[in-house]
Amino acid sequence: MSEKLLEVRNLTVHFYTYAGVVKAIEDVSFDVYTGETFALVGETGCGKSVTSRAITKLIESPGRIVGGKVYFYRNGERLELLGMSDEEIRDIRGKDIAYIFQDPQSSLDPLYTVGYQVSEAMYVHGRVRTIKDGIVRAIDILRRVLIPDPERRVKNYPHELSGGMKQRVVIGSGIANDPKLLIADEPTTALDVTVQAQILELLKKMKREYGLSVLLITHDMGIVADMADRVAVMYAGKIVELSDVYTIFNRPMHPYTIGLLKSVPNPLKKVDRLETIPGVVPNLINPPSGCRFHPRCSRASEICRSRVPELEELEEGHFVACHNPGE
Ligand SMILES: Nc1ncnc2c1ncn2[C@@H]1O[C@H](COP(=O)(O)OP(=O)(O)OP(=O)(O)O)[C@@H](O)[C@H]1O
Ligand code: NI
Predict the structure, then answer these.
(1) Which residues fall inside 5 Å of ion ligand 2, going by CB?
(2) Which of 53, 76, 223, 313 could form a disulfide linkage to 58, CB 3.0–4.6 angstroms apart?
(3) CA nearest to 70, candidates 47, 95, 53
């Protein structure tokens, strides 16, 4: 396999709310390699966004990163991101590691032209000398993200563009500084189905052309199948299974993954009936003891109630956190 770009180790984030401490993510560990698309998948509230944001310390009060390390490899140097000052991490965020969020509307400022905003993204990281220089470059970037008539579009304000075009602009700003890692958090969820497919195609094109690695956050197994090389399945703030995409779909071993794949139309297999996993996602203020999935798990035994299962490599590259894994 290719080189390691990102190493997330035991990442733990808590939110200190009036109701109690929300243990949003607990000991999350995974690697992202150069040139791959790595997906984080799971139901709502399982900690995908918190994980992706914590990587560059984008956690706001009442949240706090209470443990873990994030190593980022840049030009042969191994940087630990969580120990960096706000200023140092700001220099990495938006330059070496860029984000794309779900709603393009909220990523763009309604008061500035899209050309200005793409230009500004480069200007703040010293990629262009002036905003004016940047606008010339922005035309080329809009062309690369396949926005028609970029010379004219560069002068548009966000409200003059459709949702899909706005997301193209956001992707353009993301890649403007030639990042190594693009973190895309549900980048197509807010868009129409036809536009979704176009944006996913665009992400593939960007990945090819720029040699980017992509950390893709999604709750959609179809998108995982279409986009990802490897995938980590999250449940209630923890990674329960991690492997290449083919293995997850064909040989899932964690009871949660097995249930998840039964509850969604499996894009690689035809299923007649959708099943749902009984029970509800646990409250993260008082998560279940032992394995957080045990109250909903048909295979749960005594040890599952008392001991937290570690992610173990059961076959090459296939990690499962379960005391009673099976197929
Ligand atoms: N500001 C906050 N205050 C308290 N709890 C929070 C806060 N932000 C996130 N959380 C908690 O952290 C957990 C993980 O949230 P996160 O947004 O990462 O989920 P997600 O997997 O991205 O879900 P979705 O698919 O809905 O985006 C949730 O249980 C949520 O309640
Ligand atoms: Ni999210």
Answers:
(1) 49
(2) 53
(3) 53
